[in-house]
Task: structure prediction
Amino acid sequence: MAFTVVFRPRARADIAAAVTYHARQSPSTASRWRTGLLRVIATLEADPNRYPQADEAGDLGVDLREYLYGRGRNVYRFLFSIDGETVSVLRVRHAAQDHLTQDDV
Result:
């Protein structure tokens, strides 16, 4: 079964901020980061259920899952929920950022 991946407005803003940050470091890094998003989308379309629940899922009372993207100091958490055949990416946060709160979702 193929899933549809939808990026919520806050996730889109998070991605724009990450690309801007990487572009200041190196345009080629930003380009690779954007290209990698296509792999993230393809993976979530194929089988989002294989990813674990996020640490804060229990505190928020939602089935919140996470996909870790990147390596080294540039790891980002794609935080998403699954509703039927739709994967909603709620936030994209650097792994060093605090866990989500109810206000962040």
Notes: The two ends are 27 Å apart (CA to CA).
